Every structure is written in C-alpha cells, then in structure tokens.
C-alpha cells in the first residue's frame, strides 16, 4: 500500500495571517509539522500542498517537498484532491491529510491511523483520530471539536458543542477530534464531488459531509494530544511544550 502524507497550508487566515510561517523556537511552524511527520514509519512520500510562493520557498529551504495547488480550492479536501490528481495516485493508495497547524503531532499517531487501513482493508474509506479531553477548559470551547462514536469505533457525530451531554453526571469521558484524516484516493474523489452538507454548513466541520451522505469514518483513540495553533498565543503554548519534550 502506497502511503502519501499531505500537509495543506494556506498563507491567508482571518485570525492569524501567515500562520504556517510563524516561528516556533526559531523554525517556521510548517517545518515542525513536516519534520515530526517524517519520523512516522510507513510513509512513502510527504508533501506540503500550498498555493503560496512564500510557503513553497520556506519548505524548500529546509529540504521539504512541495506541490502547488490551485488558489481556487474551496476547502481543504479540494486542495487534497488537486494535489493527488497532480501526483497521479492510484485509487487504492492511502492519503494522510495532516493539518499544517499541528506542530506537536506525534509520529506514533500517524502510524496508528495507517494501521487502521492495514487491519481493516476495504471496510471503510476514511479514518481519523480522537483524544480523551483532559483539560476542563476544552470541554465547552468551540475551538476544540468534540466527537462521539459507536461500539465499533465508527464516528456518529462531530460538534463544536460538548457531546455527549451528561444530564445527571459530569463523570464521563469526552473525546475531541484531532486534525488528521486518512482516506483512500478513491474516497477523496467521491467526497470532493458531494454537495455541501446541511450539518457541515451549520457547524463548519467538513467531516460531517461524509456522515451526512452515509459514509463511515473509522476512529482510533490516540494516546497523544495534538493541539492546533489558531492564535499567536498558541505559539507560546507550543514553545513551552517543546521545551519540556
């Protein structure tokens, strides 16, 4: 099974312009993501998928591979579809979509999501990771997307609200979604052609489109958190975490 990891990265961001190039301990964030991903076993190729020449130059400066995508891409999945079309991947090739704002991603988490496809061939076209929330402030923070899944670890729903809601107790695990996906090349093409989902539009969560149209998303629970960088303050949190590692 050929496995290609893609890191979509946009320069424009309403909350944090130029985020992929924001320095973390002297390196641009995109370099941290790329280098940590490169430590994962089982990957054949890693590319940053971007439409920005500044990001391209930064990635090439540290020896990374870049694939330039159309600036007209409406979503992260459209950018992935553009990239894998250019790369000429086969239908059964595995694509890992790692968000470019996760400089603390653990390589073992990437290996874990690859193993889902190795152990369950043909059972699903898409998979992702969750992590049990340990910080109470994340429970009701819409920035941290929550998830629920069935007894076979297929996703039931993703929400910016706390799910499930304990009517009579607060003593139960709540899981958040980590920003990494894996899918077959064939599934990406199918997904990219689906119309915008009603729930997807309400929550602004692209993965809900798959559930709304009846597709399964397999879930693995990671032992490692992978906080996303959304604001300059998050950069300082990452630097503190890296200093401890």
From TrEMBL:
Q: Which reaction does it catalyse?
A: 8-amino-3,8-dideoxy-alpha-D-manno-octulosonate + CTP = CMP-8-amino-3,8-dideoxy-alpha-D-manno-oct-2-ulosonate + diphosphate
Write down the superkingdom of origin. Bacteria
Q: Pfam families, alphabetically?
A: CTP_transf_3
The reply on keyword Manganese is: no
According to its UniProt record, where is this protein mainly located? cytoplasm
The UniProt keyword set, sorted, is:
Cytoplasm, Lipopolysaccharide biosynthesis, Nucleotidyltransferase, Transferase
Which is an annotated GO molecular function term of this record?
3-deoxy-manno-octulosonate cytidylyltransferase activity
Entry keyword Metal-binding: no
EC number from the UniProt entry? 2.7.7.90
Uppermost EC category: transferase
Provide the protein's localization: Cytoplasm
Family per record? Belongs to the KdsB family.
Q: Which NCBIfam families match?
A: kdsB, PRK05450.1-3, PRK05450.1-5, PRK13368.1
Q: What does this protein do?
A: Activates KDO8N (a required 8-carbon sugar) for incorporation into bacterial lipopolysaccharide in the Shewanella genus.
Q: What is this protein called?
A: 8-amino-3,8-dideoxy-manno-octulosonate cytidylyltransferase
Q: Which organism is it from?
A: Shewanella surugensis
């Amino acid at each position: 099974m050929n496995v290609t990891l893609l890191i979509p990265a946009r320069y424009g961001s309403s909350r944090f312009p130029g985020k992929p190039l924001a320095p973390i301990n002297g390196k641009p964030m995109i370099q941290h993501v790329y280098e940590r991903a490169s430590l994962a076993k089982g990957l054949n190729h890693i590319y940053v998928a971007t439409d920005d020449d500044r990001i391209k130059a930064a990635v090439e400066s540290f020896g990374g591979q870049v694939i330039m995508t159309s600036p007209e891409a409406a979503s992260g999945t459209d950018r992935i579809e553009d990239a894998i079309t250019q790369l000429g991947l086969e239908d059964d090739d595995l694509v890992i979509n790692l968000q470019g704002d996760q400089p603390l991603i653990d390589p073992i988490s990437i290996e874990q999501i690859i193993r889902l496809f190795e152990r369950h061939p043909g059972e699903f076209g898409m998979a992702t990771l969750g992590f049990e929330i340990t910080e109470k402030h994340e429970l009701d923070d819409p920035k941290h997307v929550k998830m629920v899944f069935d007894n076979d670890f297929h996703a039931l729903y993703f929400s910016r609200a706390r799910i499930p809601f304990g009517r009579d107790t607060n003593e139960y695990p709540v899981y958040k979604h980590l920003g990494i996906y894996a899918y077959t090349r064939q599934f990406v093409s199918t997904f990219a052609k689906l119309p915008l989902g009603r729930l997807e539009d309400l929550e602004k969560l692209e993965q809900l489109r798959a559930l709304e149209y009846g597709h399964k998303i397999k879930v693995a629970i990671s032992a490692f958190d992978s906080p996303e960088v959304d604001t300059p303050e998050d950069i300082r949190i990452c630097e503190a975490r890296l200093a401890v590692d």
